[in-house]
Amino acid sequence: MTDRPLRVLLVDDHPLLRHGLKALLEDVGGAAVVGEAGDGAEAVELALRLEPDVVVMDLVMPGMSGIDATRRLLDARPELGVLVLTMSDDDASVFAALRAGARGYVLKGSGGSEFLDAVRSVARGEAVYGAGVAGRIRRFLTSGPATTATPFPDLTAREREILDLLADGRSNAEIASALFLSLKTVKNHLTSIFAKLQVADRAQAAVRARQAGLGD
User: Above 50 in pLDDT, residue 20?
Assistant: First the structure.
């Protein structure tokens, strides 16, 4: 065991959030932030070049998602610790991250000490999950093999139909035509979908939907 600082790569498309995490990690946690990335493709390139101990990974970003980036990184470096830090707490996102090989999953609303503890735990090779995420995993494991979680349970059946078509690459006009709805109705449903999924636009919603198995 060496005394060198823990090496961390931050991956998030919000620079202000990265700035705050860097200050927390370095000023309070004694770690060294060796790089920052704003999307999944950049994260893969930097992680393979800089060789951090832990990658703190957001899920929803432009271009390559955090799920795909995690999968690619761990294919190349299975020993790397990936800690997901995200706003997404639905079952689909949690289990997609676990299947990709993430060692930890913490929500962005967590406290600073919980986040730092999670980073250190992942660096030691441990699996760590925030309390809310751990509860989801526990319910999934105790619900029996016949139970299949419905993606995005907060969405209505109509909203899930629209999200499925969105993930399939359909335009608003194409969605309206397929479901015999007005264009205004489709736009209203999309506004509700974006709010419930906590995403900013169609691209981010499509990424979340595809991670959950929606779309073609």
Answer: yes
**Hey, is 9 helix, strand or coil?**
strand
Instruction: Please state, in angstroms and rounded to a whole number, the distance separating the CA atoms of residues 119 and 149.
Output: 29
User: Based on the structure, what is the number of domains in the chain?
Assistant: 2
DSSP state of 25: I
Q: Is residue 162 part of a domain?
A: yes
The answer to whether 37 touches 10, Cβ cutoff 8 Å, is yes
- The CA-based angle 30-27-83, given to 5 degrees, is 60
Contacts of 41 (CB under 8 A, 6+ apart): 63, 64, 69
| Residue 201 structural domain | 157-211
Tell me the per-residue pLDDT of 67-76, one tens digit each, with 9 for 90 and over. 999 999 999 9
For the segment 35-70, what is each residue's pLDDT rounded down to a tens digit? 999 999 999 999 999 999 999 999 988 888 899 999
Q: Is the dihedral of CA 111, 115, 117, 118 positive or negative?
A: positive
Q: Are residues 85 and 177 in the same domain?
A: no
> Which of 87, 112, 142 is a domain's end point?
142
* Residue 149 belongs to some domain of the structure: no
